[in-house]
Amino acid sequence: MNTSQTPTLDRIAGPADLRSLADHDLGLVAKELRREVIDAVSQTGGHLGSSLGVVELTVAIHAVFDTPRDKLIWDVGHQCYPHKILTGRRDQMHTLRQEGGISGFTKRSESHYDPFGAAHSSTSISAALGFTVGRDMGMPTGDAIAVIGDGSISAGMAYEALNNAGHEKRRLFVILNDNEMSIAPPVGAMSTYLSSLSDLSRKGPFGGLVALAEGIEHLAPRPVREGARRAREMVTGLESRGTFFEELGFDYIGPIDGHDMGQLLSVLRAARTRATGPVLIHCCTVKGKGYAPAEGSADKYHGVGKFDVGTGVQAQAKSNAPSYTAVFGDALTQEAARDPRIVAVTAAMPSGTGVDRMAKRFPGRVFDVGIAEQHGVTFAAGMAASGLKPFCAIYSTFLQRGYDQVVHDVALQGLPVRFAIDRAGLVGADGATHAGAFDVGFLGALPGMVVMAAADEAELVHMVATAAAHDTGPIAFRYPRGNGTGVTLPERGTVLEIGKGRMIREGTGDVALLSFGTHLSECEAAAAALEAQGISVTIADARFAKPLDMVLIARLAQTHSVLVTVEQGAMGGFGAMVLQAMAGQGLLDLGCRVRTMCLPDRFVDQASPDVMYRDAGLDAIGIAACVRQVLGRDPHLVDLNAARAARE
Q1: By C-alpha distance, which of 144, 127, 133, 130 is closest to 69?
Q2: Which residue, of 25, 28, 335, 509, has the greatest Cβ tally within 10 A?
Q3: Do 571 and 579 touch, CB atoms closer than 8 A?
Q4: What is the rounded distance in angstroms from the CA atom of residue 1 to the CA atom of residue 95?
Q5: CB–CB of 309/38 below 8 Å?
Q6: Residues with a known catalytic role
Q7: pTM
Q8: pLDDT tens, 225-276?
Q9: Angle between helices 620-630 and 520-531 in degrees, nearest 10
């Protein structure tokens, strides 16, 4: 190659082209790649800071390892944008996180350079070990490289994988991307431990590790310290003289500068050449590196909307209504001001769940447990058992990770943990991996669990008050991402009667729509379109999926020819519960035709929430079409203009 010419991304069709470049030229590619990432995300929005932090690391890994034969697995995937550009998707970056475009995470169906899909944290080491065993058993795969952040490595699943990999002693590469920043600043003993290791970078990439290990043994996590002989040696200062990772069976290299291309290349090449067992490379990076607005931001531009590259100013949402998250945070703070027993737990998402608002006023009563949903749920259960009133605020998609604890540590013991479930329903650009589709079904299956869904932001305030007052068992309430409808908020929430719905409007007996959650507004828009065609519609808000308001449901079934349930969840949720309850009480024998509308039995790809619900057949037009079909009328003759006008 003519090295007098500056290499550009235009000359790189894939990682193989990187391997023909000189080390100096790889550094130049990284600079151009960083600019391209900034430009692309400014047009689409997305996870900018994490991607900027791994630009040099991404170039170095692809230049040293033989991807895609060697399997590069990004934990979570927030940082995969440079990877996508280098692996044949550069011309698709303008579609990032958009309808019909490429995912914001790694996705197996998108590229053979994405060997394992991601979006939830702490899975990469387990997956990499799986590929490693496959290689050793004759499968057509090379080395496996897991890149995991300092926030993700705090989760229990990462410890389980490290422990298993150390026991297996197979050749495996784990790169710890240590930027001291996940979405919120990382918490816990491991974060402190990594920071102490990172301080050694001033002394060179390999110097002083043994001496340091003797001084930081007490920072090892308590379960490991109490459960393993070598970890106990770290605490007592006996025979062990290695780092925590070495105690688990890994060769440890680091800390190294993750923005020094020469250092990255030399370490990765040496590790690839010499490794015979598991290796952990501790790489220190800066989240948002190379873009001043990101580096100077409190969250390092973790997730941004479209923005101006020159100023870093993000486009503002047009709605004047507050977000559901903010409404929850404010309502919880008000309840906490009245009751000193109220506490809040979040799993590395204080601002994302809104509990940061309570933390500003009552910092000693809000607990961020890090990326540890399982621990967070049981931690809340313990506080409930002590007499406190814990609100466990976790996104629907992440609560899935703590389901065993919800079952055995909360529901089985009848403990009054309050689950505040944000991001319920379809969430937009993050796509299927973050959809809050399953919580109604998996929570509703549990004896003693109360499950609510807010129809609007005022109802959410009432449900926070209801949860605060509920002391006889676990209770959950769900609400979506984004802004509310703009209704007037009450000064104080009213405690709702458990299991009691409400009538919104009464028709003459043709059709009843029974809504659960914020799709109430879509039901109202559908009703307006149907009324314009001479079809009378009754609308009720269930409020509760468990226990159901069977008095209300019986009334609707007895007085209407058609009953349609509408929800923002998957099959097996609210509608299924209504059908089973009606069957049990003989209400299906009355002649009322019942239909359930829920998310389809597939994962819905990213788009705006409105488009995703339209794709799922759950917008106002889809609801009206369902009603017309049940009535034996042409579903295609729905008055689209009336439905859209009513919704707007």
Answers
A1: 144
A2: 335
A3: no
A4: 33
A5: yes
A6: 287, 373, 401
A7: 0.85
A8: 333 344 334 333 434 446 788 889 999 998 899 999 999 999 999 999 999 9
A9: 50
